[in-house]
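In response to reviewer comment 3 from the previous cycle, which asked for concrete evidence that the modeling workflow produces usable outputs, we include below a single protein chain processed end to end. The sequence was submitted unchanged, and the resulting structure tokens are shown without manual editing.
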Amino acid sequence: MKTKKKLLNILFLLVVIMTSVVLLFISINNGFSNGSVSHAQTLFWGYLAIFGGGVLTLGILESASENPCHNAVDVFKKRIDNLADGLNASGLDYTKKYINARNTANYNQALDMHSMYKTYYLVRREKYKQQIDELLEEWATAGKPYQLTSILWKVFLSVAVIAQFTSCGYTLGVDIKNSDTESKENHQIYWTAKDVSLPHLQDSTCYVFNPENIVSEHTVSILNEKLQQMDQELGIESAVFIVGHVQNQDLFRFAQDVFDLYKIGRNDRGLVMVLAYEDHVYRTHTGYALESELTDAECHQLEARYLIPYLKAGQPDSAMIHLTSAFYNTLENKPLPYASSSYSRNTESDTNAEDALTGYVFLYLLGLVILFIIYFVVGDIRGWHLRIYAKNKRQTNIFKKELSILPLLFGGNDFMFFSGGGSSSHSGSSRSGGSSWGGGSSWGGGHSSGGHYGGGGSGGGGSTSRW
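The workflow returned the following structure tokens.
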């Protein structure tokens, strides 16, 4: 029965370990492939809430049953103390007798005495082990009233470890993806109109193609809101491309090809915006009918005022948000927005959130340490570790030949090789910083059906800027 229970415990432990490892690698891959900063943050705070709630709930249950359980465990600990004291006292007695006899003995006699007293001690220690086994069997019966809470604790801690590895792996994957600049440099993509995909065709609320995460997801959300507003209020269909490189740095050809391939713009009122961030080139491309409302000169002026300063400062998020807002206000005949640093602060908040991913991974590792501490603390209260407790109370083997004959070899008589292993005493991020354009995000998740473009074309109107 005892062997079967031991095998079941080992099997349960192996299942927890293997599940944790498998989910760790799966979540790392998922975080690296599809992960985002906001998802990682949500996962972290969700895990923290569940973990904290679980500890609190079980802590309340523990407090309701802690006193009788703890008292019962203390009783068995005291019985273990008494058994260990008897073993350690007999070991000390054998040691003293051996040393006294050895002082008047020759080398061969000392070896015989060592062997004799060692045998005495080992017999006494074997009896101690048997007594501990009997006591633990007795505890298995006496501890049954407290088994339900013990099972809840073990299940919770096991699930918490698995969830911790899963959440940490996902966050680690997102962190690797966001810090993988060297990989991007070694695998640069030079985009053409045929290579890109238009999110609007899969989700009618999405207009921004941002495959290299040059701007944050928060920025993409803001841009989608404003572009959808332009679509619904002004009848202007848009497509925004934010990439690292465009083939031959020819953004005019890229934008014109997009118009030709996808026919953007109902009644020829289409707008294509292309930012090739690593090429340091930006292009606004307008449809036939839109050229009279958003002239080439206006495009160039707005780019110079609202786009270029932020791109020079290394803030593509602020650049795209400011420029899109300026286009909207111009088309609505509203006063142009003030180019403040508000969106810059949003961008900085996004950057800080991404940097915080590393901190979250550290907190997960700290959480793992806390889980082990909880395991040992709760285990001590619930009597999970009585065998370990009994082993630690026992003194280490005091009759080792290589130690015991040293006094004879070096002529000393006062060495006491009694190593004391234990004491015989009794034990007693979520991201904030909203935009002035309002609340919720229209980004994502396939909650909206795919859109389409209205068959428009472009005669090449617009403006190209470099920085």
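Residues 37-102 form the longest helix (66 residues). We consider this sufficient to address the reviewer's concern, and the full set will be provided in the supplementary archive.
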